[in-house]
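Suppose a colleague, Dr. K., hands you the sequence of a protein chain of 140 amino acids and asks what its three-dimensional shape might be. Before reaching for any lab equipment, you can write down a predicted structure in token form. Begin with the sequence itself:
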Amino acid sequence: MVDVVKVKSGSKFEDSQNYSRIVAVGDLIFVSNTAGIDYATRQISPDAGEQCTKALQNIERALASVGATMADIVKVVKHIPNREDKDKVGEAFARAFQGIDPTSTTLCTPLASDIYKVELEVIAYRGAGKAGQQRLRITV
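The predicted structure, expressed as tokens, is then:
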């Protein structure tokens, strides 16, 4: 039988909208859209790059609660409402994922509030970061 673990991180929306920050089904871990807000102080930077960095810190902390790390992330979806912010978000993303190289999709989509410049959703597989990896380059 597979264990299912559901984790809440302190976002007021998790309780009001009845969802979890993380749902881990065995070693497969799904992380809900995560904004770059400090859940303790409710502060958020107006800068998209800083928001991305904070969102990644929030995700890292949530993953740790189920014994996973950023190196276990295999897929990221970046939601940004303004194309002008894609480079700042991309730079923060690149710093965090150097050597990890998950799959990545960037979508320009409206978010729940105008204060959010980026939200990230990820899928991780516990132990992927320690597994043997083969890196291939293809020509398309």
